[in-house]
Design brief:
This protein is an alpha/beta fold. The longest helix is centred in the middle third of the chain and has 29 residues. The mean pLDDT is 96. It is built from ten helices and nine strands. The protein has one domain: NAD(P)-binding Rossmann-like Domain (Rossmann fold, 3-Layer(aba) Sandwich), CATH 3.40.50.720. The radius of gyration is 17 Å and the shape is globular. The strands form two sheets. It has a seven-stranded parallel β-sheet, with helices on both faces. Strand 7, helix 7 and strand 8 form a beta-alpha-beta unit. Helix content is 52%, strand content 16%. Bound molecules: NADP nicotinamide-adenine-dinucleotide phosphate.
């Protein structure tokens, strides 16, 4: 179990949506926060309200990533919540290499690189917790979100491996797999969430599950929990899952 009172926590994507809701909950638990995002305006405002430090850095650019890596190395956080992420509502054949590269830099490479710089100190302290914001899309592969789904699958596989590598060294890892969450994510990706089912859950609900997973050492959290049903169905009966997904969309 990771105690949060007094813990140093880095939340990437801490200026909005799930990252912001998680930061608020962590603050109430007494965590000492550093928040990052690319736009300094909204980030500095929320950081001031939470009494948090902040680092504005575009994780889609090598320089921005390097800036956050320097800060993460210096701060040596006890917990990192990797919540920075962008969507891309495009079919595979409509996605350019440049778009794919940017998405993979923000959604995958940044989390891998930040983890790599904080893990050595966590190992020597025999204590640390990494939280990765994956997605149900990464477990299922969602049509019209091919590269986004791939990015989240990569993150889940990485989280699984780091969890195994770290377990004997006191390092804990949580993969969070939300379905749709009511945040600015959809507007930013350029296509609103258009389904009536499943209904989007609140960012605060996801944040509650994240904080509880850190406190109680849960390796994987699906939000809402019933979305584990299609994940299990796909694993045990991929043909049936594909037929149903094709029919239901
Ligand atoms: N909303 C959903 O339905 C949903 C479902 C499953 C998983 N997720 C995942 O949950 C995570 C959080 O999403 P959200 O819904 O909270 O979205 P959000 O409200 O749009 O927040 C995204 C956060 O990431 C930051 N960010 C985006 N691009 C960045 C960049 N290039 N460099 C640094 N920071 C960047 C944003 O700050 P700036 O804009 O200032 O850069 C913001 O703080 C993402 O990884 C997303 O893939 C979301």
């Amino acid at each position: 179990m990771t105690a949060l009172a007094g813990a140093r926590v880095l939340v990437t994507g801490g200026s909005s949506g799930i990252g912001l809701a998680t930061a608020r909950r962590l603050r109430r638990r007494g965590a000492v926060l550093t928040l990052s995002a690319s736009r300094p305006g909204p980030l500095s405002e929320v950081a001031a309200a939470l009494g948090a430090d902040w680092v504005a850095a575009d994780l889609g650019s090598p320089d921005g990533l390097e800036q956050l890596l320097r800060r993460a190395r210096a701060d040596s956080p006890d917990v990192v919540v990797h919540a920075a992420g962008i969507g891309l509502a495009r079919r595979a054949d409509e996605t350019s290499t440049e778009e794919a590269l940017r998405l993979l830099r923000v959604n995958v490479l940044a989390a891998l690189a930040i983890s790599a710089v904080v893990l050595p100190a966590m190992r020597s302290r025999r204590h640390g917790h990494l939280v990765f914001l994956g997605s149900v899309a990464g477990a299922l592969g969602v049509a019209d979100e091919a590269v986004y789904s791939a990015s989240k699958a990569a993150l889940a596989a990485y989280a699984g491996a780091v969890g195994l590598e770290g377990r004997a060294h006191g390092i804990r890892v949580t993969s969070v797999l939300p379905g749709a969450v009511d945040t600015p994510f959809f507007v930013r990706r350029g296509r609103p969430y258009g389904r009536t089912f499943p209904r989007a859950v609140s960012a605060d609900h996801v944040a509650e599950r994240i904080v509880s997973a850190v406190e109680h050492d849960r390796g994987e959290v699906v939000v809402p929990a019933w979305l584990r049903v299609p994940i299990v169905l796909r694993a045990i009966a991929p043909g049936t899952y594909a037929r149903l997904a094709g029919r239901l969309g």
